[in-house]
TrEMBL record:
Keyword Protease: no
Signal peptide bounds: none
Superkingdom of origin: Bacteria
UniProt name for this protein: Phosphatidylethanolamine N-methyltransferase
CDD domains: AdoMet_MTases
Entry's EC annotation: 2.1.1.17
Keyword field: Methyltransferase, S-adenosyl-L-methionine, Transferase
A molecular-function term among this protein's GO annotations: rRNA (adenine-N6,N6-)-dimethyltransferase activity
Enzyme class: transferase
InterPro entries: Methyltransf_25 (IPR041698), rRNA_Ade_Mease_Trfase_CS (IPR020596), SAM-dependent_MTases_sf (IPR029063)
Residue ranges of domain Methyltransferase in the record: 111-208
Organism phylogeny: Bacteria, Pseudomonadati, Pseudomonadota, Betaproteobacteria, Burkholderiales
Organism expressing this protein natively: Orrella dioscoreae
Length: 259
């Protein structure tokens, strides 16, 4: 059987066939579960539920009470609606969230997070001691943004394209110590990538760092863009316990004259 699926990959690398097959089967299974739950969803004027419908409804009620599962279903639905924009089938693992926030903490002052999704990195930032009031969460998906406002009521949640960050008034004009990026950068045109980096570094104080992750071995920001913006990239951490394994990159200014 030949597989012709385009997998979401923030790292944009070619993946081995066994991995493509695994993703394909997980996707099929997830779709079955979802359609099963849809069948079980009670209609407004329906009578008593029987058979598969009743079991589906019971499972639906059970799963929606399980926050972990509900988060994954929400993420999966968002991915189905916009695979390129979401860029992953599942939220990042706790191991990746811990790695990408390892150098960030209360000492960083204010922090910007790009592409917060369901808040996997946001929760890790909170665990590292970053107060909600010191977080600006930039998320383009309106449903995710709405839920982020509920989950992190003191954080500044901006529902906008991260490439438009440059003129955005955050933290009353104060600069931030770190930017944590969960965006699918490799799914974006170069121009948008440049806009995101320019905007982020315009908010970053001297010595501040931009952290991003990718599934590939190379930095997703091309060398030409790094040179043009005067940035340096260093691989900071590798996370084997993520599916698939991921790498965290740290971008900093080469000199005080850089963006
Ligand atoms: C790969 S998901 C990461 C979500 C979360 N950070 C995590 O690691 O589980 C990418 C997120 O970036 C958001 N996103 C994509 N393009 C964006 C853009 N231009 N500006 C802001 N957010 C964007 C998507 O809606 C999605 O929530």
């Amino acid at each position: 059987m030949s597989l012709k699926i385009r997998l979401p990959q923030p790292g944009g690398v070619s993946v081995p066939e066994w991995w493509a097959r695994l993703q394909w089967w997980s996707l099929r299974a997830a779709r079955r579960v979802e359609s099963f739950l849809q069948q079980g969803r009670p209609k407004a004027k329906s009578g008593p539920l029987w058979g598969q419908q009743a079991v589906g409804a019971a499972w639906g009620a059970l799963l929606s009470r399980n926050a972990w599962m509900a988060e994954r279903l929400r993420f999966f639905r968002a991915w189905r609606a916009d695979p390129r924009g979401i860029g992953a089938i599942m939220p990042s693992s706790a191991a990746l969230a811990s790695a990408i926030t390892r150098e960030v903490g209360s000492h960083s002052g204010d922090v910007i997070e790009l592409g917060s999704g369901t808040g996997a990195f946001t929760r890790a930032l909170a665990r590292r001691g970053v107060a909600q009031g010191a977080m600006a969460l930039i998320e383009t998906d309106p449903d995710f943004a709405r839920q982020l406002r509920r989950d992190f009521p003191e954080a500044q949640v901006c529902c906008l394209d991260a490439a438009r960050l440059a003129g955005e008034p955050l933290f009353g004009g104060r600069t931030v110590g770190a930017v944590v990026c969960g965006l699918p950068l490799l799914n974006m045109p170069l121009r948008q990538q440049v806009g995101i980096l320019r905007g982020s570094f315009s908010h970053l104080r001297p010595g501040g760092a931009f952290y991003l992750f990718t599934y590939g071995p190379r930095c997703p920001v091309p060398r030409s863009v790094l040179d043009r913006l005067g940035l340096r990239a260093r691989r900071a951490h590798s996370v084997i316990l993520n599916v698939p394994p991921a790498h965290v990159w740290k971008l900093t200014r080469r000199s005080s004259k850089a963006i």
